[in-house]
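queue> holo job accepted (guanosine-5'-diphosphate)
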Amino acid sequence: MTDLLWLWIVLGVLLLAAAGSALVVPRLRRRDRDRAPEGGATTLAPERDRADVPETATVDTAPPPAAPVLETPAPVAGRMVRLRDRLARSGSPLGARLLSVLSRDHLTEDDWDELEETLLLADIGAGPAGELLEALRTRVRVEGAREPGAVRELLRSELLNVVDPTADRTLATTPQQVDGVARPAVVLVVGVNGTGKTTTVGKLARVLVAEGRSVVLGAADTFRAAAAEQLTTWGARVGVETVRADREGADPAAVAYDAVDTGARDGVDVVLVDTAGRLQNKAGLMDELGKITRVITREAPLGEVLLVLDATTGQNGMQQAKVFGEVAGVTGIVLTKLDGTAKGGIVVAVQRELGVPVKLVGLGEGPDDLAPFDPEQFVDGLLG
Ligand code: GDP
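queue> job finished
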């Protein structure tokens, strides 16, 4: 009997102990779990340790790294409308002030002086300003228009004249046949550092991709490692290969040659070559760009030499630009940062000074903020 009693007591104690641990352990586990997120590092460490252990197995079984997602550049048509809207929204002092003076009842000499001052402040340049005023004087005398719609139309057509709607602004980006073999069109991009050269090459690659062209980039600005890096990133975003040097300070002409050679071998439509824009002396610049041009033309015809100019530097940037114009045989101008200035007259001034048309304009820092220049949309933007 006593034995039986002892057996019951022992069984009872065992049962109680089992029930107790069943209640306590989950609570401890829960507390651990609840506490874990507080200490980010401690939570992450065991995770990392765990991940580190089966490294080879993980590598073998994990899916391959995802291919970079290619971006689809925005359509090119309609980009200039954005500039028109932006210029119009900025209440462009040029268009608004010209219109308000021209609409006065009797235009005095003071009024004409005010018009001239407005044009000069908008960086249009003395020559074009004089021509525009002369044309306006004649038309106001002959037509005597004072009705707002007519004044606007008169100013619009004369502004358009100085911007030059007849200039050929197409980009030579069609491959050429040389001795019966298709060769890519080569576009060399030159200009002072900081004007937006590398960014423009990247944006232009997107414009061409948007138009269904195949492109190779050449990072011939070998003086800044960051420039090659920047260009490679631009290209990779739209699936475009970038040819670059394996070290800083390499011969830019060699990189340009390799880029054109790669483009020719791969049968691409266009090779875009970015160059360094150090402010060196004219002879040095001539040597460097001359050598690049020579090696490129051994492989393919040079379709375009685009000079990149920062619109916000106004007349100050012009002197440096002229040096590039003289040494590089520029065929077109890219006017960047037009979004950052109300002085749209610079378009007219650079074309006059350099004798080549503005072909593209930069409208912002976004990847698709580059548009083929359209004189009518531009003038409409100035007039608001
Ligand atoms: P690079 O030294 O001539 O190659 O100049 P980068 O391409 O490195 O550009 C210099 C700076 O200008 C960068 O911060 C660009 O984002 C900026 N930039 C280039 N084009 C434009 C433009 O059209 N508008 C604005 N707002 N910024 C621009």
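queue> Residues 19-64 have pLDDT under 50 and may be disordered.
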